Amino acid sequence: MNSTFEQARAFFLEGIAHYEAGRLPQAEQKFAAALALMPGRPSVLTNLGAVRLKLGRPADALDLLEEAIAQEPANAEALGHCGAAHAELGHREQALALFDRALAADPSRASVWTLRGTLLKELGRFDEAAASFEKALAQGGDPELNRYYLAGLAAARAPQYAPRHYVQALFDGYAAQFDSHLVQALNYQAPRLLTEPLAAAGRRYSHALDLGCGTGLCGHYLRAMAQRVTGVDLSPNMLQKAQVLDVYDELRQGDVLEFLGTAQEQYDLVVAADVFVYVGALDDVFRQLAQLVPAQGSFCFTVEESRDEDLVLRPSLRYAHSESYLRRLAQEHGFALARLEHAPVREDQRQPIPGLFVWMERV
Hints:
The chain is globular, with a radius of gyration of 23 Å. Strands 1, 2, 3, 4, 5, 6, 7, 8 and 9 form a nine-stranded mixed sheet that branches. By secondary structure, it is α/β, with parallel strands linked by helices. It contains 17 helices and nine strands. It folds into two domains: about 5-160, Alpha Horseshoe (Serine Threonine Protein Phosphatase 5, Tetratricopeptide repeat); about 170-360, Rossmann fold. The model has no long low-confidence stretch (mean pLDDT about 95). The chain has helices at about 5-20, 25-35, 40-55, 60-70, 75-90, 90-105, 110-120, 125-140, 145-150, 165-175, 180-185, 190-200, 220-225, 235-245, 255-260, 285-290, 325-330; strands spanning about 205-210, 225-235, 250-255, 270, 300-305, 310-315, 320, 335-350, 350-360. It holds the Pfam family TPR_16. This is Tetratricopeptide repeat protein. GO terms for molecular function: S-adenosylmethionine-dependent methyltransferase activity. Keywords: Repeat, TPR repeat.
């Protein structure tokens, strides 16, 4: 074997090691170096495309993956990644065709069954989506994730909480366009509407906690009324955006429930805007906040409204909560309901999503 091939192989193996360790920029660099030495090699094209897809650049991945498929039409890995790239770019029919080709080549690819199910759900083909998630489970796919997807289709019992890795991956991938999409496309006004009554009351808080702070949409409102502001979010990419705002005294990366379970400080203002739709059951949240919020402290949040069940997981994979459930939790854990408003929390396909804006005080 010649030295060029050996060097390309070394770069490729280094790229694999970086990829598996989650060091995506380094993996991209090594795969690109390997491709420069061995142009057109399907395995390198596929892996470089995969890493660019994971870096949130589906358009950059597409040409690489299509070149790999042109050379190896039954390359299930390349077909699956190419389908995922088309799906992220909104090319749903092309994505579905590629997923089907990938599964025809290798029916054991559980991750592709999951991607296919997700796409079919978005297309409103719920029975086919459920069948795909069942196939993913049968092929050894992530049981927590696929059962969560099935529950969103009412094809399985809803879990009490959303899978942590699902929420983190969702928002890590969403971070770059989060603010513009949420505020402009979905008419999201929750941070302003939730904090306006607090500001109007003129109260100054000692320490505000922004649960699920995301990119910091609530941050500057809280900064104006609190001496200290702490933000918590599961997504590192979201926290990078929030850091730039320079409105938080402290930012913590982690799961909301885990943070509350280990927190030592007192917070006389806790805000959770559009957070509990990804938490699910709120019993532990209320129980933990009862230890962290002092008397007369404020707890303000939004939920999507369920008119029937206490807690329901919708096809959007967002939980909805009933007013009676929230009132019961408040009573059980020493919170008084100060104010409650029925209002849309956002839009979905230009339709308002009914929600509850809730302001509570610690008794």
